[in-house]
Each structure stands twice: as structure tokens, then as C-alpha cells.
Write a structure and sequence with these properties.
The protein is mainly beta. It has 2 helices and 15 strands.
Length: 237
């Protein structure tokens, strides 16, 4: 093999390695998140006949270890046989997971956030026909030294009824990667913090399983339990 040929191969390898580093250092995007999952979701108020709403979150996301930024896709879908009527989707962050923006949606005022949450956005979906879905690009930050959760309620446009709620469901990892460009997180997994001796999750905010609504006296119940904070709160107001 000529020296010129060897130099050419070496140059190609360096270029490939550099490209790989650039790819790994970027936050996850929709194409890297795997199939959508309704894990942690439950029906709440009865939807109109022929309407069956649900939400989907990616099974995995990736957090940039330097910037703490991540990205994910939130999807609302009508699996029924009739139009949904005018609905909205809420995207709410808890503890280590803070929602910074949702494409086409408006930030929820701090006074209107449920106790225990740190951020949220409201998305006017409109009416979804049978079999239709709508997806939203979500930008967020994740503090890998703590546990983080996300919640997706689907409501009537006036917020009086909540047809479906996914979460609060955790994103996390049991295998922290402090020296890697990014840390992958899995839906429905409690986060093991990236910190020396971090064998236990720190206590952040209110209790892990129940997030009370203060004056309203209602409760935001975590995955698997009955009751939904948002519809209860709206009825009290």
C-alpha cells in the first residue's frame, strides 16, 4: 500500500471519528426516540361516545451532559371512530425535568401550575378526527443529579374535563454516564443520579407518589392510582 493511500485512509478515519463525536454530543431528536409509548397513561373523565384519546411519549430520550438539554416528542391521538371535539394538551414537568418550550404552545402561568410541578405548556389541539394524531416538539432541561417526571393531560378546551392523563411518569437511567457526551434516559425508569455515592434518589419537592394541590384539597396521584389533579382543580375554581 502506498504512503499516499495510507494517509488517505487515516484522514477518512479521523473525519469519521469527529463526525461520531458531533452526533453523540447532540441532544436526542424525534428520529432517535424509538416508538411512542402510552406507559403511565389512564382514562379519567368519560369521553364522548366514539372518542378514545391517548398520548404517546418516546421510550427513550438523551440528555446532553454539558448543557443538560434534551428534546422529546409529545403526541395526542384519537383512536376512536368519531371526532374528538375541541381539546387541548398540557405538557407539565416535575422535579429534575423542566419544560422550556413546546412548539406552537403557550407557557402556563406559575400560579396555575399544580403544586410540585416546575413548568408547563398548554397546546390548543382543536378537533382530532377518527384515527388522527398531532405531535409537538418539546424542549427541556434535565438535572441528572435528581429524579424527573413528565405529565400529559388531555382536556376539553375549557379545562373542565380531563379525558386522559399520562403521568406523572419518570424518565431516568440506572446506569449514569457522567463521562459520556450524553446520558440516555428511559420512560418509566427512576433516575439514578450522576453523582459520587448517589445510591439513593434525593428527596425533591413533595412526596414521590402523591402531589397535593394545596387549597383545593385535591391530590395529583402518580402512575397507577385514581384521580386527576387538573380536572379536580378546575372544578374547584
Amino acid at each position: 500500500m502506498s504512503s499516499r493511500h495510507r494517509v488517505g485512509i487515516a484522514g477518512s478515519l479521523v473525519t469519521a471519528s469527529f463526525s461520531a463525536v458531533l452526533i453523540l454530543s447532540c441532544p436526542a431528536v424525534a428520529d432517535d426516540q424509538g416508538p411512542g409509548s402510552g406507559k403511565g397513561g389512564k382514562a379519567v373523565d368519560q369521553a364522548p361516545a366514539g372518542v378514545q384519546l391517548r398520548t404517546l411519549l418516546p421510550e427513550k430520550i438523551s440528555v446532553d451532559n454539558s448543557s443538560k438539554k434534551t428534546a422529546l416528542t409529545a403526541t395526542v391521538k384519537n383512536e376512536g371512530t368519531k371526532d374528538s371535539g375541541d381539546i387541548r394538551l398540557l405538557v407539565v414537568g416535575f422535579d429534575a425535568l423542566r419544560i422550556t418550550s413546546v412548539q406552537g404552545c403557550s407557557a402556563i402561568a406559575e400560579k396555575d401550575l399544580p403544586k410540585g410541578s416546575n413548568s408547563g405548556f398548554g397546546c390548543p389541539v382543536g378537533s382530532l378526527g377518527a384515527g388522527q394524531s398531532k405531535s409537538y416538539a418539546v424542549q427541556a432541561t434535565y438535572d441528572l443529579s435528581k429524579a424527573g417526571k413528565i405529565c400529559l393531560p388531555v382536556q376539553t378546551a375549557d379545562g373542565k374535563k380531563t379525558y386522559w392523563q399520562q403521568g406523572p411518569v419518570p424518565f431516568g437511567t440506572v446506569n449514569p454516564s457522567p463521562n459520556a457526551p450524553a446520558t440516555p434516559l428511559l420512560l418509566g425508569t427512576d433516575n439514578k443520579p450522576v453523582a459520587p455515592g448517589g445510591d439513593e434518589l434525593p428527596k425533591t419537592g413533595v412526596g414521590r407518589d402523591v402531589l397535593p394541590l394545596g387549597a383545593a384539597g385535591a391530590a395529583l396521584i402518580a402512575v397507577g392510582a385514581a384521580g386527576v389533579w387538573w380536572s379536580q382543580r378546575r372544578r374547584e375554581v
